[in-house]
Design a protein that fits this description.
This protein is 50% helix and 14% strand. It is built from 1 helix and 2 strands. It has one helix at 28-55, and strands at 2-5, 11-14. A two-stranded antiparallel sheet has the order 1-2. The longest helix has 28 residues, at 28-55. 0% of the residues are buried.
Length: 56
């Protein structure tokens, strides 16, 4: 744990920060997977909206 002391002698405890890294651009197969997920999500949302309109 990282601890500092200010000029009044008060201890301040801080959590250790994780090491930073930069995200990499998704590969072509990952992009295709995201498109497939988007299509399924759109189908589910459209179905829910149509069911809600048909019920009301």
């Amino acid at each position: 744990m990282y601890t500092t002391v200010n000029e009044d002698g008060v201890l301040n405890n801080y959590a250790t920060e994780p090491k930073m890294y930069y995200a990499e651009y998704p590969a072509i197969w990952e992009q295709r997977k995201y498109v497939i997920q988007a299509v399924f999500a759109l189908a589910i949302v459209s179905t829910l909206v149509l069911v809600a309109f048909s019920v009301s």
